């Protein structure tokens, strides 16, 4: 005769009939859902401008890509529904991805630090900026003239040697 083990009283669902604690299962799925769908704003209010501008810039790039995809699909015979919904779906998926990335702790901390460093920068005044721009433009013009004269002199010299 085989030996029978007695049921474990602390394990839910064991024989004879120990009730399953559904709260543990629900808590497990809540934890999984929170980790899988972590669409919450990380450190709300910090690095707001940097994150918004980054998300807006990426959104514009993706929008242009989706518009281009729509025009490419329009050149085929896939139908207007497919030509419209595929780019719209991709835009939505990439929008969620951007939201996830700008709120990912590593990326968000970098953007928060970058915005903090940008606030510490001492920006030039308008007068300094105008003077510096003028100096740069003049140096570029002078260098272009000097390089043009050098090129012309080398061309004349080598044409004189070869003739």
Q: Percent helix among the residues?
A: over 70%
Which spans have pLDDT < 50 for at least 5 consecutive residues?
Answer: none
Order of helices and strands: HHHHH
Largest pleated sheet: none
Overall mean pLDDT: 81
Measured on Cα atoms, how large is the radius of gyration? 33 Å
Please explain how this structure is put together:
The chain is flat, with a radius of gyration of 33 Å. 72% of the residues lie in helices and 0% in strands. The protein is mainly α and 163 residues long. The protein has 5 helices and no strands. The chain has a domain at 45-119. The termini are far apart. It has helices at residues 22-36, 48-74, 80-102, 105-120, 126-162. The mean pLDDT is 81. Helix 2 (48-74) packs antiparallel against helix 3.
Features:
about 160 residues, mainly alpha, single chain, flat
What is this entry, summarized?
This protein is an all-alpha fold and 163 residues long.
SSE topology sketch:
Elements: H1 22-36, H2 48-74, H3 80-102, H4 105-120, H5 126-162
